[in-house]
Amino acid sequence: MIWPLVGFAEYGAIAPIRQYQMVQTAVDALELRLVVERPLSAAEEAAFIPVVQRALGHPFALRFDYRDRLLPAASGKFEEFLSLVAD
Question: Is the pLDDT of residue 18 over 60?
Answer without folding.
Answer: yes
